[in-house]
Specification:
Blueprint: E1 2-7, E2 11-12, H1 19-22, H2 25-33, E3 43-47, E4 53-57, H3 59-69, E5 74-81, H4 85-96, H5 104-113, H6 117-128, E6 132-133, E7 141-142, H7 145-154, H8 158-170, H9 179-191, H10 198-206, H11 210-219, H12 227-243, H13 256-265
Parallel strand pairs: 2-4, 3-5, 6-7
Antiparallel strand pairs: 1-5, 3-4
Helix pairs in contact: 2-3, 6-7, 7-9, 8-9, 8-10, 9-12, 11-12
InterPro entries: DUF6551
Pfam family, one: DUF6551
């Protein structure tokens, strides 16, 4: 095995390794959105007897590199020579299956250490609310890292509004910093940025505990869904409750689903 810089246009995919089936456009799109060639890790490559290079690991980043920079862009590779097809398959499986998933909170901490602009801004917003992002949830600690990142990435200033609204509604309690609740309230405020009255929103939420809101959202979701998929019906329930008793349509909130439908009509 040795290291070599190879043009991405020369790195091929062997369908017999099932790499084609495992390619996910959504993951490639995510890589493209945070692309930084300076931190691109080495691909794992098999150089066969005919001199051609086949990817065992790194196909998504290789495709993104080719799309971003063209086929002549070179990337670092760990190159194996003389492998049998069964040895290639074993390395492919090891590279794509036998990895321990990195916890979101660990990625968050590493991003802070790397001074990532988005994560640093989000962390500052969390701290401004008297809270911290950690691996577990307590009164002043948020363990729902992915929800915090999803809301914080939408627009600057949204996350503090969400966290303070939740705290006003249910106080700072470990049940307050719920993944679904953070996402749903983020949807409501983001969709109605210039309309929503945060004090009315907090009073609306206060009418029932977090668990009650979640229970009804789960019932509205096909097959139960995950916390992300249940956030939209939860947001819609919140909007309905908020609008109850309002007669002035200008003061009413628009559900995130309806806002998306209207936007698509004018595209």
């Amino acid at each position: 095995m040795y290291h070599e810089k190879i043009a991405v246009g020369l790195l091929e995919i062997d369908p017999s390794l099932d790499a084609q089936r495992m390619y996910q456009r959504s993951w490639a799109n995510k890589l493209a959105s945070i692309w930084n060639p300076a931190v691109l890790l080495a691909a794992i490559v098999s150089k066969r007897e005919d001199g051609r290079y086949y990817l065992l690991d790194g196909q998504h980043s290789t495709r993104v590199a080719a799309e971003k920079h063209g086929p002549n862009f070179t990337r670092h590779c760990m190159v194996y020579e003389g492998l049998t097809r069964s040895e290639e398959a074993a390395l492919f499986l090891a590279a794509n299956r036998d990895r321990k998933a990195v916890r979101p909170v660990d990625n968050y901490r590493v991003a802070l250490t790397a001074k990532d602009k988005l994560v640093t801004r989000i962390d500052d917003e969390v701290l401004s609310c008297g809270l911290t992002v950690t691996g577990s949830t307590s009164a002043n600690q948020i363990g729902a890292v992915q929800a915090v990142m999803a809301v914080g990435a939408k627009r600057e200033g949204l996350l503090p509004k969400v966290l303070n609204t939740l705290a006003d509604a249910w106080t700072k309690d470990r049940t307050t910093w719920d993944n679904m609740a953070i996402r749903a309230v983020g949807m409501v405020i983001d969709t109605n940025w210039d309309t929503v009255q945060l004090d009315r929103l907090s009073r609306t939420l206060q009418k029932a505990p977090v668990g009650h809101w979640k229970m009804h959202a789960v019932r509205m979701t096909t097959s139960g869904g995950g916390s992300n998929s249940r956030s939209l019906p939860l947001a819609e329930n919140i909007v309905t409750a908020y609008n109850s008793g309002l007669r002035d349509r200008k003061k009413m909130l628009v559900s995130p689903a309806r806002a998306t439908e209207v936007a698509e009509e004018y595209e």
